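Trying the structure run again after the queue cleared.
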Amino acid sequence: MIAWMSWTLPVAIFFAVIAAILLVMTVYEVISPCTERKGFLPIATTRGDRLFIGLLMAAYIHLLFLGLSELSLWIALAISVVWLAILLRWG
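Done. Tokens:
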């Protein structure tokens, strides 16, 4: 059924982490409902909005590293994780 997809361990870990993040955010939302708030982003956002924006920015950070540098993607991952933490806390 999915023979066309090259399922390697890194790909499986990536999708498992995304699924785990979504599961944790869903449980957190059920336990503690969120209201919109205004942080340093120019719009009022919820936790889910900030998570989505953070994941998009992580993709852009990785694409920039791939396109513009020879540095390791581990550096891009570290930058993305720090950015996501900042965005979720103060965004």
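The CA atoms of residues 14 and 20 lie 10 Å apart. Worth checking whether this holds up in the mutant runs.
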